Amino acid sequence: MSDGKNTLTTAVYDLLRKAIIEQALKPGMRLPEDTVGEQFGVSRTIVRHALVRLENEGLVVTQRNRGAFVAEPSKEEAQQIFEVRRILENEVIRILCNRIPDTGYDQLRSHVRNEEGVRGKDGPVSIRLAGEFHVLLAELTGNEILARYVSEVVIRCSLIMSLYARSHSSDCAVDEHSQIIDAIQSGDAERAIAIMDHHLGAVQGRAELARQPDSIRSILSHYGKELAQ
Amino acid sequence: MSDGKNTLTTAVYDLLRKAIIEQALKPGMRLPEDTVGEQFGVSRTIVRHALVRLENEGLVVTQRNRGAFVAEPSKEEAQQIFEVRRILENEVIRILCNRIPDTGYDQLRSHVRNEEGVRGKDGPVSIRLAGEFHVLLAELTGNEILARYVSEVVIRCSLIMSLYARSHSSDCAVDEHSQIIDAIQSGDAERAIAIMDHHLGAVQGRAELARQPDSIRSILSHYGKELAQ
DNA sequence: TGCAAGTAAATTGTATCCAATTGACGTAAA
DNA sequence: TTTACGTCAATTGGATACAATTTACTTGCA
């Protein structure tokens, strides 16, 4: 994601992004430019650029003259993001069944071992690793554009789970990750897709069923849309 | 695409984007911040923000301390973008066969009439309209995230055609657009997808077969990747 | 007490300024 | 002639200053 060029801007961008993934920054939280800037020891200019990038990814929303906030995806948005995620990830599986780099399975198995290593600890790390498994799958297709889009929807799903799901402990069942690898390796594309589809359905279902009550802010902002300028 | 909030930044962003779509700004062209700023009567700050957004979409690339350039997708990138475009647009068709708003067909037919109105003139307008047909299809799914991704790959395809295709006159055959609408309206999803797939294949093929010789810059930039910092 | 208006504080929008880096040109030495 | 070096112009990287806008508080009036 980060191209490692604009060091300062990219550094702030990466930090904010990671903080959002790990749900340290929660949906609806304000992100005042100078507060963030002081925190990282940079000027507002840098923070602004980072926020622009995050807004493009749908991770933050900005209101004119009001500032930036961590995004609070509505239920409709959540539905749409999940739909796109399933489209993309099913296709990732289909591609991987046709072509996968030599080291692919090693990388995947190794990643799952890492996930198992932190099993039980419902900390931010396990949340991040679960998402990164799906990004790794997409990267193995060799299609960088596809991988970028998967990365975007995965992280937005993380935001959705943070808003709507009761427990984030196991957004992804590690077992199912293993099953997906097995299915790809067996070359049975249809079965692999079925498992992935079921896996994502489970994640989505957890968000739908166990959704928390809306926060005050998101409730009011919903009504506010009808008044606003 | 543009949210109409940050008026100045968004205005510059929209103008640059449109200029790239219509191939007035050609791949490899420089986009110096103050030149662009003077042109539009705004300061570099505004232009910078617009360029950041365009870079996120893959329409421009920036080199540290060197500036921004209109992107020159490599052949590999072009291949990847087309692959993602087919994935997304096939799925758009599949969705539209299941659900399409009441006014959908009217909007589509109306758009095709516009395209026919400028037929023959190989100007920038026909190029833009051809792309917007595909974006309109995506928007009719009601899935904004999906529509945004389609919009991104469509415009990047416009960049690719500008680089590699001999004639941009008819990136899309208007007849085929009508056929696609017919197929969706008939409810035959498989046929509709087949037509869309063929349609995109034709566009892609035109880029592959009639590709122009690489520019010096894009050739050297390819080798340069092995040296760079 | 409750509401309204006005004022002050906080925050973003934009422009400008200085520093750092890059590329080009020209000059000199081998 | 070619290469190496040094200087200069052009451009971006980043910080700061000022203007505009919004929000919150306070004051005054009914």
Helix content, binned percent of chain A:
55-70%
Span between N and C termini of chain A?
35 Å
Quick one: how many beta strands of chain A? 2
Largest sheet, strands/sense/barrel of chain A:
2 strands, antiparallel
Q: With helices defined by DSSP (H or I, 4 residues minimum), what is the helix count of chain A?
A: 10
Strand residues, percent of chain A: under 5%
Poorly predicted spans of chain A: 213-229
The second-level CATH architecture of the largest domain in chain A is Up-down Bundle
| SS class of chain A | mainly alpha
SSE arrangement:
2 copies of one chain form a homodimer.
Chain A (H helix, E strand, L loop, with lengths): L6 H15 L11 H8 L3 H13 L3 E4 L3 E4 L4 H24 L5 H14 L6 H17 L3 H21 L9 H13 L2 H21 L6 H12 L2
Antiparallel strand pairs in A: 1-2
Helix pairs in contact in A: 1-3, 2-3, 4-6, 4-7, 4-9, 5-6, 5-8, 6-7, 7-9, 8-9
Chain B binds a DNA duplex (30 and 30 nucleotides) through helix 3.
Q: What brief labels describe this structure?
A:
homodimer; 229 residues; mainly alpha; Arc Repressor Mutant, subunit A; Four Helix Bundle (Hemerythrin (Met), subunit A); 2 domains; two-stranded antiparallel ribbon; 10 helices; 2 strands; 69% helix; 3% strand; globular; disordered C terminus; DNA-binding
What would you say this structure looks like, in words?
The structure is a homodimer of 229-residue chains. In chain A, a hairpin with a 3-residue loop joins strand 1 (60-63) and strand 2. In chain A, 69% of the residues lie in helices and 3% in strands. Chain A is globular and about 55 Å long. A two-stranded antiparallel ribbon of chain A has the order 1-2. In chain A, helix 4 packs antiparallel against helix 7 (144-164), helix 5 runs antiparallel to helix 8 and helix 7 (144-164) runs parallel beside helix 9. The first copy, chain A, is built from ten helices and two strands. The first copy, chain A, is mainly alpha-helical and 229 residues long. The first copy, chain A, folds into two domains: 7-71, Arc Repressor Mutant, subunit A (Orthogonal Bundle), CATH 1.10.10; 75-209, Up-down Bundle (Four Helix Bundle (Hemerythrin (Met), subunit A)), CATH 1.20.120.530. Chains A and B meet through helix 3, helix 4 and helix 7 of A and helix 3, helix 4 and helix 7 of B. Chain B binds a DNA duplex (30 and 30 nucleotides) through helix 3.
